Every structure is written in structure tokens, then in C-alpha cells.
Amino acid sequence: MRRLLPIAAALCLGLAAAVLIAREAQPDISVHQLANIVKANPIDPATGRNIATVGSGVHTTVTVWQVSTDLALHYHREHDEVVYCQSGEGIARLGNETRRMKAGEFIIIPPGVVHGVKAVGKKPMRGLSIFGPLFDGKDRVPVAEGK
Predict the structure, then answer these.
(1) Are 135 and 61 in contact (CB under 8 A)?
(2) pLDDT tens digits for 43-66?
(3) What DSSP line would sit under 11-53, residue for residue?
(4) Which CATH architecture has domain 34-142?
(5) Which of 77, 85, 113, 136 is the most buried (most CB within 10 A)?
(6) Rounded distance, CA 59 to CA 48, Å?
(7) Domain boundaries of the chain, sorted by first residue
(8) Quick check: helix, strand or coil at residue 61?
(9) Are 83 and 107 in contact (CB under 8 A)?
(10) Rounded Cα distance, 147 and 143, in Å
């Protein structure tokens, strides 16, 4: 029994350390206001767009995008993307389809699907993209028009 006591104590300490490390690895919960992010990250007049990374969780990354021109055709090899249009409207290319996208709509885009959007109307398009797994921007593969 005396021999088991040090082993049990070591196991308890190891488990406690693992719990503390796991808690430290968890990202903080954060609350954001879209209007504040838009104001802090205005559309670049030279490109007509802005994409700002808001934050990441354990498995997802959130970006806020604004576009008064277009977001060029591209795809992601390894990432799902959920695109939510908060305001404005545009013409979206999704694979071989083209459709109008309006405020309040969202689209789920699996890996490998070519997509892009051209803003139409007087107001810029604004919204969120949620990527899974974590997204660092490197998995954005450009596609030439007509492909």
C-alpha cells in the first residue's frame, strides 16, 4: 500500500497539470460588434475591399469582409467556409453557378469549390466568413476568370 501512495500522488499531480494545460490552451470567449470592426478596418480605396481576421476558436476562424468591387475567384483545398452577408448585395459565383446574394443570406462552401463575389448596388457588401479548420489565409488558391 505504501508503494502505491507515491504512484497515486504522481498520477493526481499529472492529471491536475494536464487539466491546467488544457484550460490554458482554450481560447478566451470574446464578444465583438460588427460595426466596430467595420469602422476599425475600412475598405481600402485602392482595392475596394478589406478582410479582417476577428479571431479564432479551437477549430474555426472568423473574418469580417467588406467589398465595394469584388472578391476574386478562388477556392480552399482544406477549409469549409460559411459566408454570411450582413448588408449589401452582390453576384456570387459558386462552383458552376452564379446567383444573387442578399443581406441575411448565408452560403456553406465545401473545400475545392471555386467561389467569388462582385458587389452590386450603391452600398458595399459586408459580412462574416467562418472557416474550419483554423484558417491563416494561406489556403486561398486563386483561379483565373473563365475557369
Answers:
(1) yes
(2) 999 999 999 999 998 899 999 999
(3) HHHHHHHHHHHHHHHSPPP----HHHHHHHSPPBTTTTEEEEE
(4) Sandwich (2.60)
(5) 85
(6) 30
(7) 34-142
(8) strand
(9) yes
(10) 7
Q: Which of the given ranges, 7-16, 28-37, 130-139, has the highest pLDDT on average?
A: 130-139
CA distance 69 to 90: 9
What length is written for the chain? 147
Q: Which residues contact 16 (CB under 8 A, 6 or more apart)?
A: none
Residue 89 has a CB neighbour count (10 Å cut-off) of 17
Beta-sheet pairing, 80-87 with 106-109: antiparallel
Longest dimension (CA), the chain: 79
- Half-sphere exposure at residue 117, Cβ-oriented, CA atoms within 13 angstroms: 26
The type of residue at 18 is: A
Residue corresponding to grid cell 478596418: 41
SS3 content of the chain, % helix, strand, coil (to 5): 20, 40, 40
Helix (H) / strand (E) element for 7: namely helix 4-25
